[in-house]
Amino acid sequence: MRIRFDKLGVAITLIAAYGTLGSGFAVLKPNRIVQGQVKSILECFPAWAGAALIVLMLLTVFVALFRTPPWLKLGAAASALATLAVAIGLAADFLTPAGNSYARVSPASGFWILLFAFALLAADAITRLKPAPWMRVLFLFIAAAGIALIFLSGIWSGLSIMKEYAGRADVFWAEAGKHVMLALGSLVAATVVGLPLGVLCHRVAPLRASVLNILNLIQTIPSIALFGILIAPLAWIAATVPGAAAIGIRGIGVAPAFVALFLYSLLPIVANTVVGLAGVPREANEAARGTGMTDMQRLFQIEFPLALPVILTGIRIVLVQNIGLATIAALIGGGGFGVFVFQGIGQTAMDLVLLGAVPTVALAFAAAVLLDALIQANSRISNGAGSA
């Protein structure tokens, strides 16, 4: 019988083997700031538990290495990821000296390498399974439910990042609300402006190049520079326009961050609207004209439905982009998860940095999965309608 290796599985095997055997699993620090001591898997648990964890990681690597069924790969990856999530919490309890409230335990590079390797294995298995859109959302819901269950169980309470969270829980959720408001609010505003502008650029060819060039120019400005450029005009508006300050317009804070994110969001939405409308088959428009449809009827009943997958792709790009860029808003008082990132950098407390970075990455990932599922579902509906 011929043994068949999986090409991506070979790479995952090498990454996971290094994470298991060549890197530390956790870091024990005397306090939240100073450098700590890296501990291997065998040092983070009782001997039997450490050996069992290594065996489980190697079994998962064995499944990844060969051309096994995608469901088996997904099951192995999910089991390994769940085990890692529980194990790092148990390692914190095992390593923390009894009665020591200053010692901190953080995941080391080996943990993050293993997390990446098995997340890659899970993503590859899901891609090969080609699940329906609702199944993708179900996978995301199961993952979120699992994380919430571990979070609520208190298994992670010994980790340094959770100790940072415990002292800032109220602030964390307030900043989370600001982060979501900045990302989603700027997206909604850009969609309201960008869709009509995209239609106008599609219909008026001479206008298209000018508008897209201006929006491209905005995209070339670094985010922190754009935040700084907006401080002076918004401060002037707040000082001279009656009522502007009362509704939150100021030189620093949420207003310049919101405007900057809005400006960054316009290009993907406008460009994808133009591309989507340009891709509508001429035959569909001609048939609509033949039935006596007006321009507005053709736009909303024919062109927009056919162009919607491309437009949604632009909205997906914007949302993921804005979730990341909203982190920088903290530099000008805009709030969001960036508050913890920059506080942590200033205090050289990397677990405080993670308190802002991890939820930002998780939020961007969840948004990408949900919008990918929506785009896929819409494409299937459009293809079904086209076939009919």
From TrEMBL:
Protein species of origin: Rhizobium deserti
TM ranges: 7-28, 48-67, 74-96, 108-126, 138-159, 179-202, 214-237, 257-278, 299-319, 325-345, 352-375
GO biological process: glycine betaine transport; transmembrane transport
GO cellular component, one term: plasma membrane
InterPro entries: ABC_transp_perm/SBD, MetI-like, MetI-like_sf
Taxonomic classification: Bacteria, Pseudomonadati, Pseudomonadota, Alphaproteobacteria, Hyphomicrobiales
Limits of the ABC transmembrane type-1 domain: 176-376
Gene3D superfamilies: MetI-like (1.10.3720.10)
Entry's localization field: Cell membrane
Protein name as it appears in the record: ABC transporter permease
Stored PANTHER family: GLYCINE BETAINE UPTAKE SYSTEM PERMEASE PROTEIN YEHY (PTHR30177:SF30), GLYCINE BETAINE/L-PROLINE TRANSPORT SYSTEM PERMEASE PROTEIN PROW (PTHR30177)
